[in-house]
Amino acid sequence: PGLTIWRIVIDLFGFSRGAAAARHCANDLVKGADSLLAKALPAGSPLLVASFKWRHRTDFNLNFIGLFDTVPGVVAPLSGDFSPHNASNPGLDLYLAPGIARHVVQFVARHEYRHNFSLVRTDNDIELPGVHSDLGGGYLPLATEKVLLSKPQSSQVPVDMPETSTVAYDRARQLMGVMLPDMEPYLQRWSIDTWAVVLPYNKRRDMFAEKRVYAALRSERQVHG
After folding, report:
1. pTM
2. Digit-coded pLDDT (tens) for 53-65
3. CA distances (Å), origin 149, targets 100, 118, 181, 193, 214
4. Sequence-distant (≥ 6) Cβ neighbours of residue 170 within 8 angstroms
5. Is residue 111 part of a domain?
6. Residues 167, 59 share a domain
């Protein structure tokens, strides 16, 4: 209480699309009084000193912009952009003008296959070994991958019926018989997963309580990062 702000120092960080967001944010901030932040906290607000006018380098300063492998990955069909693998990023302002911040640094994945992860560079890129996700936190040395192999089958049954006795489970088991011969060499463990959602029950309307049962094929395996 009683404190007022006379100057704001801003640091921005981001990875991948977050890095694109940080760059766009920086370009919006340097619009001064027209920026989104200035409109949310306009000059003359009780928190700001009377002389605060959202002037870049006077009232606020962009100190550090730290980026990790900027990959916007934008597809905008209505604008004629059908591929993320280009420099077209409608609605985003990603260019960082010289001097926009005191320091701009970007870590870049040296070994990424850029057809899928097109990079927006800066004048201060530092290449590091690894791919895109290595820079964003890395992969675990060993992780358990759980993947649904089929679209869930469903059926509506009495609430006390075992899930393994439902039509949904039978359909999933039949599907397993079709898919398993081709997929078994690639699976370490597989199962039929079931889950249920109890449906609203009105004793005046419904003869008995029901649930909707779902069943799907699931694979589980150990994956090395």
Report:
1. 0.64
2. 999 999 999 999 9
3. 48, 29, 13, 11, 14
4. none
5. yes
6. no
